[in-house]
TrEMBL record:
It comes from Cruoricaptor ignavus. Keywords: Cell shape. The lineage of its organism: Bacteria, Pseudomonadati, Bacteroidota, Flavobacteriia, Flavobacteriales. This is Cell shape-determining protein MreC. InterPro entries: Cell/Rod_1 (IPR042177), Cell/Rod_MreC_2 (IPR042175), MreC (IPR007221), MreC_beta-barrel_core (IPR055342). One of its GO terms (biological process) is regulation of cell shape. It comes from the Bacteria. Residues 85-234 form the Rod shape-determining protein MreC beta-barrel core domain. The keyword Flavoprotein does not apply. Belongs to the MreC family. PANTHER family: CELL SHAPE-DETERMINING PROTEIN MREC (PTHR34138). Gene3D superfamilies: Rod shape-determining protein MreC, domain 1, Rod shape-determining protein MreC, domain 2.
Length: 257
């Protein structure tokens, strides 16, 4: 019937063409998905390398004074472990998110976590495969040092629980000049985050009548409700820093006695 009738032949040809088009479309979509996944993995690796260049090394040291057997690679301070968010919350007083990296990847409590656009949180617990991270959106359990990039003055960054886009920077003297849009970054004075990691920009400011210091509203550069890719910060000198800080605590305790 189909071989002798032109109408039937044209109909079956159209159906075959439509079927082939659908199959080709599925193949193209699958190939595109695999290609996008490959491109995304390449971008993550490139971002990790950029972070090593930006934050990973101590450029303040004179190379001639570095020891050849330096265990941190000639001035390297930080390395980074990339991962992904598997659970996230932003609507509680103290928020957490879970990442797919854990002890097996060298992740430990008190390691900083940053995202492509800025800081994200601090690791509080781990299993072999996963880590629980305290989000910067936490009222009671997290405080981070933030610095005004233009002036270098630093203060304490906290969240007040009312807006997932805004944190507040305190302890900055009121004589420090400010402007809307000024950049706020990490100050590097802790063993958790490198210096100059983006936090956000000044969204508003007023004098706190109780303290006499600025109360600065900081709009976060990272949208915490859209977190996907993250990087865990590993400080290669954290143990050494902790040892010297412990000597100070021991001296204070001795003086008190």
């Amino acid at each position: 019937m189909f071989s002798r009738n032109s109408m039937q032949r044209s109909w079956i040809a159209a159906q075959a063409a439509a079927f082939n088009s659908r199959v080709s479309g599925y193949i193209d979509e699958g190939a595109s998905y695999l290609k996008l996944k490959q491109i995304n993995e390449q971008l993550v690796a490139q971002n990790r390398q950029l972070m090593l260049e930006l934050y990973g090394k101590d450029y303040s040291r004179n190379p001639q004074f570095r020891k050849v057997h330096d265990t941190v690679g000639g001035g390297q301070i930080y390395t980074f472990v990339d991962g992904e968010i598997v659970y996230n919350s932003i609507n509680r007083q103290d928020n957490y998110f879970t990442i797919n990296r854990g002890r097996r990847d060298g992740v430990k409590p008190q390691m900083g976590v940053i995202a492509p656009q800025g800081i994200a949180g601090i690791v509080v617990n781990t299993t072999n495969e996963y880590a629980l991270v305290q989000s910067v959106l936490s009222v009671n359990k997290i405080k981070i040092n933030g610095s005004l990039k233009k002036s270098g003055y630093f203060g304490t960054l906290t969240w007040r629980g009312d807006n997932s886009r805004i944190m507040h920077l305190a302890d900055v003297p009121k004589y420090v000049p400010l402007a809307i849009g000024d950049t706020v970054v990490t100050d590097g004075k802790s063993a958790i985050f490198p210096q100059n990691v983006m936090i956000g920009r000044v969204a508003g400011y007023q004098v706190d009548t109780k303290t006499g210091f600025w109360d600065i509203s900081v709009e976060l550069s990272e949208q915490m409700g859209k977190l996907s890719k993250i990087y865990v910060v590993k400080n290669l000198r954290k143990t050494e820093v902790q040892k010297i800080q412990d000597t100070l605590q021991a001296a204070i305790k001795k003086d008190d006695q």
